[in-house]
Structures are given as C-alpha cells and as structure tokens.
Predict the 3D structure of the following.
Amino acid sequence: MHNLNLRRFFRDLYESIAGTEQDFTSGSLGRAIMLLSIPMVLEMVMESIFAIVDIYFVSRLGADAVAVVGITESVITIVYAIAGGMSIAATALVSRRIGEKDHQGACRAAFQAIVAAVAVSLILGIPGWFFAEEVLTLMGSPPEEVERFSGYTSLMIGSNIVIMLLFIINAVFRSAGDAAISMKILFIANLFNIVLDPVLIFGWGPFPEMGIKGAALATVLGRGLAVVYQLFLLFRGKHRVSLSLEYLNINLKEILKLFRLSMGGIGQSLIATSSWILLVRIIALFGSEAVAGYTIAIRVILVSMLPSSGIANAAATLVGQNLGARLPGRAERAVWTTSVINFIIMGGIGLLFAVSPEPFIRFFTPEQSVIESGSHCLRIMSYGFIFYGVGMVIVNSFNGAGDTLTPVKINFFCYWLLELTVAWLLAVPARMNEQGVYYAILIAEAAMTVTAVLIFRKGKWKLKQV
C-alpha cells in the first residue's frame, strides 16, 4: 500500500508539471489542489527569480543602486496592482466559463482581457518613460541617485506592457486549469534574464557595461520573449483556451464588463501597493541603508511566500470553476483545505526567519549596516507569517468568486486607515524609526486575515454572478 501511494504521488507530481486534462469540478479535491498548486508555486518561483537575480547583481553596485531599485519597485507596484487587478477579473470570468463548460465564452473573455491590458499599459508607460527623474525625486531619492540611476526607472515603467500581458495571459492559462503552461513560460523567460543580467550590467564579452540600466533591459527582454511565447501557445489551439480569427473582435461591452469586474481587483491592489509606497517613503526618512535593508528583506519574504501564493491561486481557480459548475460546497471545502495547508507551511518558514534572519540578508549584500537593518525587518515581519498564508487564500477565494469589492473594503481599512496610521505613529512620534513601520505591517496583516475569515464564513460570496 505504501509503495502504491508513493507511485501515485509521483505520478500526480509529474502530471502537475507536464500538464493535465483533469476536470477540477469532480474527483478528489486533494488531488485537484495538488495538480493546480504545484505548477502555480513553481510559477511564483519563476516570477520572483526576476527580482532576486536583479537585486543580487545590482547589490554589487552599492547601497545607492539597491535603494533606487527598491524605490522603483515600490512605484512600479502600481503597474503590478493594475495588472493583478485585471488578472483577477480574467481569472473570475475564464474560470467561471470553464466550470460552465462554455469554451467559446472563455476564449472571448481571454481576448478582451488582452486588448484591455494593451490599452492600459500604454496609458501608464508613456508618462513613466518621460518623467522617471521626477518620480525618483518625489520618492525621496537624493539628486546624485536620480542623475545616475533614472534610466533604470524609465525603462522599467516605460516597458510595462510586457508585465501587463505576462500577468493577463498567464492568468488565462491558470484559471482554465493549464497552470503548467504558465510555469513553463516563466522558466524560459528567467533563463534569458539570468544570462543577460550580468552580461548587460557588467559588460561581459562584446556587450557594453550598462550598470543598473542593464538590469532593467535584461528583465524587459526576458519578459518580452515570454509574452511572444504566450501568444504562440494561445493561437496554436491545443489548450483549454485557444484563440482564432473568430474571437479577434473587439467587443466594447465585454471590455467594459471586464473593467467593472477588475475595478475591485485593481482597487484592492492599488490600496495595498500605494500603502507600500508610502511606507517606503517613511522608511526613506532614515537613510539609504534602511531602504536597502527593507528592500532585500521584502525580496526574501516574497520568495518565502511563493508556496503560499501558489496555493492561494489554486484556491481561486477551484472556487471559480466549482461555482460555475454550481458546486458551492466543494468550492468552500477547497478554501478551508488550502488555508490549513498554508497555515502549516508559513508557520514553519516564519519560525526559521524569527530564529536566524541574518544569513538570508547576507546572501544579497556584504554591507554590515544593510544586513543589520534587513535582519531586523525580516525577524519582526516573520512573526505574522501564519496570518499572511491564510489571508492570501481567503482574499483570493473572494476574487475567484468574482466578489472583488469585499477585499477592497478589507484592504482600505487594514492598509490605509490602520497600517499607515500606526506606521507613522510608531516610526516618528514614538521614535521607533523604521522598526515601527515593520510592526505596523505585522499588525495590519493580522487584522486583514481575521476580518477576511469572519466575512468569508457568512457565505455571500457563493451568490456572486459573473
């Protein structure tokens, strides 16, 4: 029996990575979670490697360069917020149509989401390209940093179309149940980024030494190649969602429907990320070392949350498809099961960081002042990891059901009213400096999770129509 279970596990593991034709509205719920979550976790790993590789090589250019990357990332999270919000809408629509066995409806929703992503990316990218210096100045960068490193910011924001499309199209594959495709796409993109980063930053071989701007160019090229491959797969017509000429019609009514649904997703992301921008602005009051330490610690935290993020994405897909199949009880069981899994995983990771945070920060920088600052941040924020894991599952489940307004209300209260207020009070009047910001984040995340669980238990999300 033991050998049989082991063979079954490895068979499912292979199927999850290679791709599966599993119907996620029937059969074992545990197997469905495994088949979806493993490639989604690996997809999150691939996405995060972009940031890790960049910060690893950029850290060799000094704390000022790392600080500019951190500030730029805090601003470009607005792009991530909008892309994430639109991905939430695409996920809700495509997964619901798949659950209803409406293939044509899923394909139509996918194409309209792509059109909307292109339009929004142009609106954000053009001003971002021309006003990068003003953005860095507004965020508190000193004049010498702005003069030396604004090219990085200009390129990252100006080329946001690759971020938009990468997010949207991967959401389409993921919500349809083809999570392995999203994982493979990002693997290819990362391979190019890992090679190009040191080559363009340090000028290896015949390439010019571009410094921090080379990191931006490597990331853009890697993501751009991924988008080209995504489009190839969509039009090849061999997956659950495939595009052909009959679907290439711009339907303003469908786009407006997607925008209405995505407003909640964009709103919740903008609230969370704009609060992050303001938190970085507060931390900048205490010097480049504090910003650099925070930037590195956040990268470590984001990597550590990858398993939790992948499982939460799996929960969103399962909720959408099972509501489409009119199986709300199965959808709810999927949420509680994934919540328990995340609670255990994130609890273990949080314990590790609380006991020994320094080695994880030291990996990215040799500067002792940055190591100390980042270690304090990592230890404090690790205390709330069990909340982060459960909170992500519950919020993603609301989104998978198409109830994007509830997370907006939760985020507004926890991230704007609570987090920013507490961060300022602890950092400045209470003289806790940047550590006050870290404690404020911990408090806000715990409040978010408790609030989300209480609302989820009421069950109104099961009645949402999309």
